[in-house]
């Protein structure tokens, strides 16, 4: 409450937070034993219940200025293996070890005194509390001051408690009450009521109901028990490898700023594995922002008590709900509660990072921009699974299947699917990004009185989201399954022997080492037995099929499992995109009739960057040029001084032992071709129905695949068709329009067919395919 300390000359009032006679007795004996250490001449402290009515009648009615000291009893679980955490076995006593019933409290006081202690919050003079309250609210009524004193006491006792039990148990209390007491928020509700024509009382009641729906009522007991119940499920499936470098520095930052963890979203398990890592490093529990689709019994009520905030998918025209969400967001950031959400808006269907959603980032930016929060540090988090047991449903959805609703049956199937070992999961934390600094750098204007510029603010948020995505990609390691599926998906369904797979992987592994790309357990791929083990595990998962009845085993992608294999490959695909663009640029330069073919190749790289901007996160033009120059230097360290011809550059690319364009880009450009050709066949004057077009692309894409007009089964994906639709829309090809639109659509399809031809040539230059040529 303040740094003031009671002195012998100052009367003291002890605000007692006690629910049972046992707790009141423990506190009374502690006060009588001079627990406040006020000396022998000090007047005896007066004890008042921490209750609004008691404070109004017995504290605020006093004529002096006493020192106010909040006090309560802290109950601790039994120590097990050096840790005091609630255990499933505690349920057998029908008592919460952190909040035991009266009989259990009596037993603890008598037989286990180490399991309880008296906590004191920071003391403050009554005059200090009155001044602080009046300055912050402008309300000097006794009842409003009493509610403020109760909240201040609860907060300072919580801080004292965390010095004993650690930051991982930091939980908010009286959140809805504090928000609803905020005069600024009440004025905002009054404005909404006046604007929409509803009574003020109704606006307040709806805001109260929305807050009760939103606010995460965290329980330490439920958090302990839920983590113990779920941990075995995921620990059976994965061995977690977390890079804890910089964790101590993050904890230091966390004392001043809220941390906002923004992980990649590949599995329902993400929150569990990340939560375990953070808890083991003594971080307070995150407020996990989740969709209402997971708010079903019993997961919803349990998750809310472990810190999950369920937000409606759509607010519609409900201005009060929107105001409540914005206020709650600002409150959590202002109080430095850590947050977590999956800014892609949902799990990736393809394995690579999805484009970000900006809604929640807009709320964060608003809180920082208006001064509600001094700042927030955004932490990019990469969660990479070597193998996932839930990919079958994701594959079905990409082929047009409907997503199954979450519920009890879904939960049972999910738990059952985690019974098999799935290898390793890698968690990496990127460099923190200051929301205030990055928003300002991108043109946002800070300050509550700054004139609003919605276009500038929106662009700043989009650029910040882009930086987070780049940060995630930069720390995402390459896992073994990603490289093996990269090799097998790049040979058009041919089966390969282990030596043939190794001949593909060896130069790629050398490239990874040279670029110092983060990696998982890739050393196992350098040995025959290690690679055979990876192939066997992929075979057990029905991703790879092995034929062992011939001279030696051969392996290929299991029929119908190309989308699942592509999911693993795509988790690492971003590391090879620039290499692929360089190959296509070199082929363009080779074909160019320009006086400066290398310049034509460079222009092609820029054009491809624009073509793929809805699939990958590219830096700005200057940053992209720097990255591409670095890529050329890997192939030809002397290219700046001697300027190789396109033929020489292609020879060096092919001579490196691998080509990447057909392995990384073919599926995306193939999906674009399907969309482009379907658009070209449409009447340009007719309006395009997006859902109908995407459904048609799935059906026709399957036909094109059977006719070998498409060479990559992974191209037939509703997710990739949706991105291709966005590209077409960005190029103003959706319409409606006139005859010129038909021509533009046909030109777009022709451009993609020509690009497909160059990818075929890159494939022919690849060492793994040259070996099969006569």
From TrEMBL:
Localization, UniProt: Endomembrane system
Q: Which domain of life is it from?
A: Bacteria
UniProt keyword Chaperone, yes or no: no
One Pfam family, short name please? Acyltransferase
Alphabetized UniProt keyword annotations: Acyltransferase, Membrane, Transferase
Q: How does it sit in the membrane?
A: Peripheral membrane protein
Where is each Phospholipid/glycerol acyltransferase domain found?
259-386
UniProt-listed NCBIfam families: PRK03355.1 (NF002886)
Family affiliation: Belongs to the GPAT/DAPAT family.
Q: What is this protein called?
A: Glycerol-3-phosphate 1-O-acyltransferase
């Amino acid at each position: 409450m303040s740094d003031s300390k009671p002195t012998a000359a100052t009367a003291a009032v002890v605000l007692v937070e006690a629910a049972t006679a046992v707790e009141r007795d423990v506190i009374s004996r502690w006060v009588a034993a001079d627990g406040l250490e006020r000396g022998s001449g000090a007047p005896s402290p007066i004890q008042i219940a921490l209750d609004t009515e008691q404070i109004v009648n017995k504290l605020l009615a006093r004529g002096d200025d006493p020192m106010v000291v909040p006090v309560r009893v802290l109950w601790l679980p039994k120590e097990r293996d050096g840790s005091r955490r609630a255990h499933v076995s505690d349920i057998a006593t029908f008592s919460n070890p952190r909040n035991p019933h009266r009989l259990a409290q009596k037993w603890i006081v008598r037989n286990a005194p180490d399991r309880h202690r008296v906590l004191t919050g920071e003391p403050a003079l009554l005059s200090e509390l009155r001044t602080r309250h009046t300055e912050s609210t402008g309300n000097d009524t006794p009842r409003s001051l009493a509610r403020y004193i109760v909240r201040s006491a609860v907060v300072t006792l919580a801080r004292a408690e965390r010095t004993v039990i650690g930051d991982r148990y930091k939980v908010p209390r009286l959140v809805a009450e504090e928000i609803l007491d905020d005069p600024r928020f009440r004025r905002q509700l009054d404005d909404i009521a006046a604007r929409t024509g509803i009574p003020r009382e109704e606006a307040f009641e709806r805001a109260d109901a929305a807050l009760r729906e939103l606010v995460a009522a965290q329980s330490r007991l439920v958090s302990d028990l839920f983590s113990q119940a779920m941990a075995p499920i995921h620990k059976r499936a994965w061995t977690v490898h977390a890079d804890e470098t910089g964790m101590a520095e993050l904890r230091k930052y966390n004392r001043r700023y809220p941390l906002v963890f923004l992980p990649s979203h590949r599995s329902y398990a993400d929150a569990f594995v990340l939560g375990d890592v953070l808890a083991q490093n003594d971080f307070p529990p995150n407020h996990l922002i989740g969709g209402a689709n997971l708010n079903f019994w019993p997961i919803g009520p349990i998750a809310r008590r472990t810190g999950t905030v369920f937000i409606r998918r759509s607010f519609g025209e409900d201005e009060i709900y929107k105001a409540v969400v914005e206020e709650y967001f600002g409150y959590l950031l202002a109080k430095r509660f850590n947050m977590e959400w999956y800014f892609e808006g949902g799990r990736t269907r393809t394995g690579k990072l999805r484009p970000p959603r900006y809604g929640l980032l807009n709320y964060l930016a608003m809180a920082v921009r208006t001064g509600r929060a001094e700042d927030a540090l955004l932490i990019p988090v990469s969660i990479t699974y070597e193998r996932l047991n839930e990919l079958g449903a994701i594959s079905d959805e990409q082929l047009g299947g409907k997503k199954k609703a979450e519920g009890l049956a879904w939960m049972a199937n999910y738990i059952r699917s985690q019974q098999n070992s799935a290898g390793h999961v890698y968690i990496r934390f990127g460099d923190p990004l200051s929301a205030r600094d990055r928003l300002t750098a991108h043109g946002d204007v800070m300050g509550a009185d700054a004139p609003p510029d919605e276009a500038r603010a929106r662009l700043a948020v989009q650029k910040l989201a882009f930086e987070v995505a780049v940060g995630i990609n930069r720390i995402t390691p390459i896992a073994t399954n990603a490289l093996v599926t990269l090799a097998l998906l790049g040979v058009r369904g041919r089966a390969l022997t282990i030596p043939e797979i190794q001949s593909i992987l060896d130069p790629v592994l050398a490239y990874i080492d040279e670029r110092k790309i983060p990696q998982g357990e890739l050393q196992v791929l350098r040995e025959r037995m290690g690679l055979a083990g990876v192939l066997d595990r992929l075979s057990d998962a029905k991703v790879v099929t092995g034929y062992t009845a011939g001279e030696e085993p051969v392996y290929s992608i299991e029929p119908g499992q190309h989308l699942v294999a592509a999911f693993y490959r795509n988790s690492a695909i971003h590391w090879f995109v620039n290499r692929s663009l360089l190959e296509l640029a070199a082929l363009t330069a080779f074909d160019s009739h320009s006086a400066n073919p290398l310049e034509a190749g460079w222009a092609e790289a820029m054009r491809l960057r624009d073509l793929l901007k809805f699939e990958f996160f590219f830096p700005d033009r200057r940053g992209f040029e720097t990255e591409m120059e670095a890529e050329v230097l890997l192939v030809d360290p002397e290219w700046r001084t001697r300027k190789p011809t396109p033929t020489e550059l292609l020879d060096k690319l092919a001579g490196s032992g691998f080509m990447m364009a057909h392995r990384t880009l073919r599926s995306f450009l193939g999906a674009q071709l399907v969309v482009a050709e379907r658009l070209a066949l449409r009447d340009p004057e007719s309006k395009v129905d997006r859902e109908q077009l995407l459904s048609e692309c799935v059906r026709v894409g399957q036909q094109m695949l059977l006719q070998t007009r498409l060479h990559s089964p992974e191209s037939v994906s509703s997710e990739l068709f949706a991105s291709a639709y966005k590209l077409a829309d960005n190029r103003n090809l959706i319409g409606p329009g006139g005859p010129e639109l038909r021509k533009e659509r046909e030109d777009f399809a022709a451009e993609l067919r020509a690009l497909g031809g160059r990818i075929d040539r890159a494939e022919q230059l690849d060492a793994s395919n040259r070996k099969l040529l006569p």
